[in-house]
Every structure is written in structure tokens, then in C-alpha cells.
User: What shape does this take?
Amino acid sequence: MSFQPSQQPAGPDSHVPDATPASSPDLPPIPRRRVVFSQGGVKGGAALLGGSMAVIPWLIMFGVGVCLIIFFATANYPWLPPTARVLPAAAISIAMLVAVVRAMARGYRRTMSALTLTLDMDPTADVNVICWPDQIETMKKLIPEDEGAFEPEIFRVWKTTRRTAMAYIDNKSARVWLVVAMTIWPILLNGLIQLAARRIIDVPSLLAIIAVMLLFPVIWSYIHPAYLRVAPGRVDIVRFGFAGTKPTVEIHTVNDRPVRLDLRRKELLIGGWHPTHPDAEPEAEDESNLSKAEKDLLQNAATNDPQAMLGTMAQRRALKVIPLWATLEQGRLERAVFRAAVSTAEPGPLPDDALIG
Assistant: This one.
């Protein structure tokens, strides 16, 4: 699915490179990819708070949980004075308060600065970047003056794709697994807490079990390693089997279709989102054909997954969402994906049974 943007006047937050000189008098100028920086639109999540403010509830829950665990764990040592039991919890509470205040201040500054940024995305742009104002200059420096060739870059990730609400509607097995997970995990966690309360298992063992549960995705990524291979015009998902067996390669081109690089939610969204964009299916389905439960799911999910809920039903089904946060090199991965999206160079030969040739 390709989309050729029409030539329109550029806004203050768009970047239209100068005409690129041809490498030979007989060759036409190299086509360029137009980039627009914006907040993503009201329906696309512009009203969301900053990422720093989004972690405040997690900081509070984590701090309170740790304080309670320390306080009750020290109850097993009656010879400890009350001060020794309270001081660690007080220190953690103060540290948590400082972290919350800093997150609130940083989130407030970013949210207020975003008011100077264009609100809506541009459907005629090849690449829409949803970002904060302080990220624009960094990305503009990566826009090439030529076709933008670069060597492929490899990133180890522990999550390669993200299911959207539309995927759960279409995929029955995904819906089943979602219900099972939402049912089992609370029961399992409550059972562990009850075992600790009845002194059947001690607190350190409880913490170790919870840590393993939380780190399971990371552990699984070492059993079945996965990588993102970023090259000019494409982002490949390379998944290895158990013990490093022959990989499978899933190729996604990012220079022949509309691309959204969401630097707020740390995601790459490949596919159309506007009525002027071609649909992935011959005919877009009418949303009135959905059941009431499916309509409710779409309506409720729109607030939590704004960018993935834009577009026609066909565009939502065809949308590919690649998380950019599931790596230890977030900044480098974001920059590499941006370079791939704005590049018009042809990637070199890349193997289908290995990361690089």
C-alpha cells in the first residue's frame, strides 16, 4: 500500500527538504519523504499527560507496597526498636515523594510546552511524528540531505508487536487468552499473599516469586530471543526459536505507506489512518455491523489506545504496532526507526535465516 503525498504548503512544524540534486544530469531528482511533527490530534492522544506523570500511580503503589512489606517483615524481629522498623519505611516514603514531585514537575513542563506544537497530524505527510517539543530538533538533525542510506542496525527486544483492541475483536484465541490472564493473575497473586499472611511461606520467598512473575517476559525473551533489524526503508522482526534455532523474519516496509512514529508512547505504527489513505482491504466494513459488545470495546479502548483506534475498520485491522520501549536502547532505536522511515535508499541484501549476512 503506497501513498504519494500531494504538495501542500508546509506548516511551522513540518519539514520539507530542499530539492535534491540528481546524481547524474540524466537522472530525475530523488523523491523525498515529508515529515510533520505534531501532538497526534485530540482523538490520537494529544490530551494524554506526559509520560513522567503517567508513572506517578505506579510509583505510589510501589512505594506503599515496599513500605508495608518492610514494616510487616520486621515484625518477625521483636527485639528491634520501633524506630528501626519505621525508619526504612520513612526513608522510602520520602524518596517516593521526591520522585513523584519530580515526575509531576517534568510532566507539567512538557504538557505546557506541547501547547506550542501543532495539534493534528497531516494526512498528506509520509511520516507523522507524535512527540514533545524538546524532541523535534533531535529528529530534524537526522533527516538526510541525500537518499539516506545507512548500515542495518540490530536491537535486542523482549516484545516485538502489540495487539490492539481490534486484534482482540478479530482473534478468538487472543480474546480467550486475555480473559484467562485477567482471571488467573489476580487469583494467583491473592493466593500468594494469603500464603504469606498465614506464614506458610516467608516474605523473602513471596518477593522472589513475585519478581519472577514480573520478569517472566524478560526471561522468555532469552529463551526465544527476538530482534528488530532496522535498515533503510524497512523494519524487520527477527524471531529465533528455542536455543537459537533458525529464525523467522517478518519484513515491514516503512517507506511506501503512511507511518506514525509515536515518541510519547514509544511505538511505531505502520499503516493508514485517514479516509484519504487507501485501505488494506477492498472495502472498508461498516462499523454498524458490529455487535454491541464489540462497539463497547472499541469505544472504551479508544481512550487507552488512541492512535490504534484511528481510521476505518479495514485500516485498524491492517495496522501494525511495533513497541520501541522493549529494549535497553530506546533512544537509539527511535532514531534508527526514524531514519528508516525518511530514507529513500534501497537496503542492501539481507538474509532470511540470520540477522546480518
